[in-house]
């Protein structure tokens, strides 16, 4: 079975969609965001990244009739008990901007507490809405939270996520480097291996 010609990505996040487009370019797969196809929003009622990714992938596959990939990811800060976690995109409210979320995050970390954190990503691919064995992969990216934002690339919490191995924030990384070492890049590499086996 060959790779699907078209896959819907169950996200409205332009930054995530661009990363998927880059990752799938070499396979000649047409990657389309769900908004382009008129997919309605679905409540993310899960309590874990895995549950929310499954909900989003199934919904997009059902409404489009296409294979769907959903990403549920976020920032996990140990000093905050794992927050913002699954609420990363709406940490400062439903209509929060990246800047709003960063401001709240920096204010929430208690003075003197360790600032270690990691990004976590779960990817789920459903070949169709009733797929009983969806493909699933996960990835983590470890770093620390800076005191102030730095860098203009990336999105979300990238400007305050310091990557020790690169000695800069995620927002200061070149796109190719980020795609290779990030939580999403790691999860995507695993998913691509699974897809090669599933569609061989």
Q: What's the SSE blueprint?
A:
Elements: E1 6-9, H1 14-24, E2 30-33, H2 49-64, E3 68-77, H3 98-108, E4 116-126, E5 135-145, E6 161-163, E7 168-169, H4 175-181, H5 183-198
Parallel strand pairs: 1-2, 1-3
Antiparallel strand pairs: 3-4, 4-5, 5-6, 6-7
Helix pairs in contact: 4-5
Brief synopsis:
This protein has 200 residues and is of the alpha/beta class. The chain contains five helices and seven strands.
Poorly predicted regions are: none
Computed Rg: 17 Å
Broad CATH class: Alpha Beta
Give me the count of strands: 7
Please, what is the oligomeric state? single chain
- State mean pLDDT (0 to 100 scale): 92
Approximately how much helix is present in the residues?
Answer: 25-40%
How is this structure best described in words?
The N and C termini lie close together (5 Å). Helices cover 30% and strands 22% of the residues. A hairpin with an 8-residue loop joins β4 (116-126) and β5 (135-145). The chain has a single domain, classed as Maf protein. The protein is globular, with a radius of gyration of 17 Å. With 200 residues, it is an alpha/beta fold. α4 (175-181) packs across α5. It has helices spanning 14-24, 49-64, 98-108, 175-181, 183-198; strands at residues 6-9, 30-33, 68-77, 116-126, 135-145, 161-163, 168-169. The model has no long low-confidence stretch (mean pLDDT 92). The protein contains five helices and seven strands. The chain has a seven-stranded mixed β-sheet.
């Amino acid at each position: 079975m060959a790779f699907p010609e078209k896959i819907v990505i169950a996200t409205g996040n332009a930054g995530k969609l661009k990363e998927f487009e880059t990752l799938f370019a070499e396979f000649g797969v047409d990657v389309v965001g769900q908004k382009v196809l008129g997919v309605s929003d679905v409540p993310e009622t899960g309590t874990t990244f895995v549950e929310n990714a499954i909900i989003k992938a199934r919904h997009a596959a059902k409404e489009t009739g296409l294979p769907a990939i959903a990403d549920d990811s976020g920032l996990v800060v140990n000093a905050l008990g794992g927050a913002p976690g699954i609420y990363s995109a709406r940490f400062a409210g439903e209509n929060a901007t990246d800047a709003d979320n960063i401001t709240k995050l920096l204010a929430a970390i208690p003075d003197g507490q360790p600032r270690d954190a990691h990004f976590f990503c779960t990817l789920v691919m459903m070949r169709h809405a009733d797929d009983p064995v969806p493909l699933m992969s996960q990835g983590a990216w470890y770093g620390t939270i800076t005191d102030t934002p730095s860098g203009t690339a990336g999105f979300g919490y990238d400007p305050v996520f310091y990557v020790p191995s690169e000695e800069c924030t995620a927002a200061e990384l070149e796109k190719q480097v980020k795609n290779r070492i990030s939580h999403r890049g790691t999860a995507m590499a695993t998913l691509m291996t699974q897809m090669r086996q599933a569609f061989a």
